[in-house]
Design goal:
Layout: H1 13-39, H2 55-59, E1 65-66, E2 69-70, H3 71-88, H4 93-115, H5 120-138, H6 148-168, E3 186-188, E4 194-197, E5 203-209, H7 214-229, E6 234-240, H8 255-265, H9 269-280, H10 288-295, H11 299-306, H12 309-324, E7 332-335, E8 338-340, H13 342-352
Parallel strand pairs: 5-6
Antiparallel strand pairs: 1-2, 3-4, 4-6, 5-7, 7-8
Helix pairs in contact: 1-3, 1-5, 3-4, 3-6, 4-5, 8-9, 8-11, 8-12, 10-11
């Protein structure tokens, strides 16, 4: 009787390599969607179904670009490294895929907690990363010790590619952040509120936002894309609804609203507005000097205006107006003097535009 044990199963190199290749492919698709979302205002993502399943919302979120490189490009570089390690059967696959799995869980949490939408292609990438880690962990004993070539191929090559992307890729995602000028018509209405879009609009949307609100950053990006699609029909009027208590005598509150007001005083409201959404999400105050430098404002005049009690009184009046209109959530919308639920706004605009 043969008591010899059967040899342990070999590492499933083909399956692991296939998973990594699929992740690389999906990351490429996501990169194309990322570019189109920012550069083609009327583009419709094939995985943007509704407010919950919306790839555009995720693409426009604060973490869609990290350290100057779009997340899909990070994903592609990561899956390139995982593909190489899978094919070579290197033990480095375990920590590398483990890191990818943890990053996937963190990004999913960001989508659910801050963006309020999920991207089906993104979830496909996350599932692939987690599956690859599970596979690598189960068969970790069958993986070979890392070699010098493993380190070069999985770390050095992606690092060089990352530097190339960082240095030579045009910053196309800044098109949504108008610190260099606003191409669409814009002005101030009779009530003193800034507007952008159609000079003789078919529909006017009053958008109530809070610069510290991540949902508002996504929501206003959606509206600006809508204006880009219908520049002669749609006008958006910016209204302020800071969640922190904003009163005429409490200078510590609604500081970012004051920055926006003062940016408008220097003729650059929409540039300031977009800068605040890009830099103020989740914060209670903005770096006034950084704003002035990035937008091209007179820093001394901006600081004086922001600290002026009269500016605080204007900010408090805006906040009071939002409460009086019955706008409760952020972002909030009013069309034809009626508060419109954010879930109904898209259908309303599609019907009238």
């Amino acid at each position: 009787m043969d008591d010899a044990k059967a040899p342990p199963p070999p590492f499933p190199r083909t399956v692991a390599t296939g998973l990594a290749f699929l992740g690389l492919l999906v990351s490429g698709v996501l990169q194309v969607l990322h570019v189109r979302t920012y550069l083609v205002p009327d583009s419709a993502s094939i995985c943007s179904v509704d407010a919950t399943f919306d790839c555009n919302a995720v693409t426009l979120s604060r973490f869609s670009v990290f350290l100057g490189v779009p997340l899909p490009a990070w994903g592609a570089l990561g899956f390139y490294a995982l593909l190489l390690l899978s094919w070579r059967g290197s033990r480095l696959l375990v920590p590398f895929s483990g890191f990818a799995a943890l990053a996937s869980l963190a990004l999913l949490a960001e989508e659910l907690l801050h963006v309020g939408a999920i991207c089906m292609f993104c979830e496909a990438v996350h599932v692939i990363a987690i599956a690859l880690f599970v596979l690598a962990w189960i068969f970790r004993a069958r993986l070979a010790p890392p070699t010098r070539n493993d380190w070069i191929g999985a770390v050095a090559v992606p690092a060089v590619l990352w530097i190339g992307v960082r240095l030579f890729t045009p910053i196309y995602w800044s098109s949504i952040m108008w610190t260099r000028g606003v191409e669409l018509p814009h002005g101030v209405d009779d009530e003193g509120h800034p507007w952008i879009g159609a000079e003789t609009p078919v529909v006017t949307v009053h958008e109530f936002t809070d610069y510290a609100c991540p949902h508002c950053r996504v929501g206003t990006a959606r509206m600006l894309r809508k204006v880009g699609k219908h520049p002669s029909k749609l006008r958006v009027v910016r209204r302020q609804q800071p969640r922190l208590r904003c009163t005429a005598n409490a200078m510590g509150g609604c500081q970012m609203v004051r920055v926006a007001i003062c940016g408008g005083e220097q003729g650059k409201f929409w540039e300031t507005d977009s800068w605040l959404f890009a830099n103020g999400s989740g914060a209670q105050a903005a770096d006034v000097d950084a704003a002035a430098n990035d937008i091209g404002l007179d820093a001394a005049a901006l600081r004086t205006c922001v600290d002026d009690p009269a500016t605080q009184a204007r900010a408090a009046a805006f906040a009071k107006e939002a409460r009086e209109r019955g706008v409760k959530g952020t972002p909030g919308y009013v069309v034809d003097d009626e508060v419109v639920d954010v879930k109904e706004l898209g259908a309303l605009l599609d019907a009238r535009l």
